[in-house]
Amino acid sequence: MTIDLTGGLSEDLEFVFASQPDEPEMHESVNAWIWDEGVDFALPRTGIEAIGNQWDTHGMQLNLAFEALVFGLPRLQLAAPAGELLWSTTFRFHALRELPVRFA
Q: Which residue in 49, 58, 101, 52 sits closest to 77, CA to CA?
């Protein structure tokens, strides 16, 4: 049995742009989701993105998940409102300075 997973979108959309798009707000990205065989460590989303008006400056996002933190400590909670977390931002990276947690 064949299942169509395209949602009706053109196959041409499966490929990254060969050059900078004319549309300045056009986003282009490549993503990967990676887990080890034991599910102890995961990169739930690794993405490289480019935007039309910033084509020469690609962004990269890397999410990490460790089973011990995610599943092994089910009572672990964020200890500060998400809006109050402190971020470090450089020309290439946007990352948390600290991650305050507590046990509920």
A: 101
- Length reported for the chain: 104
Categorize the per-residue pLDDT at 40 as very low, low, confident or very high, splitting at 50, 70 and 90: low
User: Does a structural domain hold residue 17?
Assistant: no
Measure the CA–CA gap between 37 and 59, rounded to whole angstroms. Answer: 28
From the list 83, 104, 86, the residue with the least C-alpha distance to 96 is: 86
85 and 46 fall within a common domain: no
5 belongs to a structural domain = no
**Cβ atoms of 51 and 25 closer than 8 Å:** yes
Q: What span, in angstroms and rounded, lies between the C-alpha atoms of 20 and 31?
A: 19
80 phi and psi angles, rounded to 5 deg: -145, 155
Specify the pTM: 0.46
- Residue 70 is predicted with a pLDDT of 64
Instruction: For residue 67, give the nearest of 37, 97, 96 by alpha carbon.
Output: 37
Structure tokens at 46: 């690794």
Parent domain of 87: 76-104
